[in-house]
Amino acid sequence: MSAEREKVLEIKHVVKRFPVSDGRMLTACNDVSLLLYQGETLGVVGESGCGKSTLVKLIMQLYAPTSGAICYRGKDLTQLNGEAMRQSRKHIQMVFQDPAQAFNPKMKIKDILCEPLRNFNLIKENETGKKAGELLKLVELPEDFAERYPGNMSGGQRQRIGIARALALAPEILVCDEATSALDVSVQKKIVELLVRIQNEKNLSMIFICHDLALVSQISHRIAVMYLGNIVEVLEGGALKAAKHPYAKALLQAVFPVTKKGAAEIRLLKGEIPSPLALPSGCPFQTRCPERREICRQEKPVLKEISKRHSAACHFILN
């Protein structure tokens, strides 16, 4: 990334709480702040239930935040409604996790691809065949796939269709929510290579949600680590092994090596993630952290810069 990077998306102190039946509030995202730059891939990792998917739905305006702002090129999307909100959706598009569930099985591929364009009156009916062919070529599929139905395609091919549909409106930001997790490993590699090529060609910005630490470190320029609705560390994509936060280090230590490396030890975190219905006081990780001290129980740490493009929320990293 260049020194003069252009901010495309800015998430400012976003909180999302959901009411539950007994009157309590479930906190899914807790004071989340992130930046996404032009042409950058921001990876977001964390255990299931940490708030990754809620964050995605907030960015896609499927949920409204309880507080905070989500700004696309300086304009707060949370303040939009009606037609202004609808028009803003063109700039941020999403590739879903399960391609088998992402399409209407009764629609032909050409209609699936051109549906976003029809929604915004950006295409005439006699242009759909040509446009579908262009989008299929972009994701390295034959043009005659336009006449197929989703059920006649493999999982990898359907995910390519999902990427093509997301790109139909020429968005600046592509959000991939576990977009490779339902695919075989060999197919994952090809999909990631496709995303990287398209990103380079179109200078796209991407948010890549993933459980696979090795994969997310390869594709991402920066990585944000989430725990219990909080961002606990942000660092360079290729520097994941330099993680400083106890939770981020625990994630790395819980990965099984592909090849035997002597006496490599797999260390698992003890304990369960606290309930988002009853967040602990102080540091959100203090109930499971082997390095916790008294201040961790009393005071919540904030993200502090460790070095350029590396920050973490821990009381003792800088000491």
Detail the topology: elements first, then pairings.
Blueprint: E1 7-19, E2 25-37, E3 41-45, H1 52-59, E4 67-72, E5 75-76, H2 82-88, E6 92-95, H3 109-119, H4 128-138, H5 155-167, E7 173-177, H6 185-202, E8 205-209, H7 213-219, E9 222-227, E10 230-236, H8 246-253, H9 294-298, E11 304-307, E12 310-312
Helix pairs in contact: 3-4, 3-5, 5-6
Give your account of this protein's structure:
The protein is of the alpha/beta class and 319 residues long. The chain has a single domain (7-106, 149-312), classed as P-loop containing nucleotide triphosphate hydrolases (Rossmann fold, 3-Layer(aba) Sandwich), CATH 3.40.50. The protein is built from 9 helices and 12 strands. It has helices spanning 52-59, 82-88, 109-119, 128-138, 155-167, 185-202, 213-219, 246-253, 294-298, and strands at residues 7-19, 25-37, 41-45, 67-72, 75-76, 92-95, 173-177, 205-209, 222-227, 230-236, 304-307, 310-312. The strands form 2 sheets. Strands 6-7-8-3-9-10-12-11 form an 8-stranded mixed sheet, sandwiched between helices. β9 and β10 (230-236) form a beta hairpin. α3 crosses α4 and α5 packs parallel to α6 (185-202). The two termini are 30 Å apart. The model has no long low-confidence stretch (mean pLDDT 89).
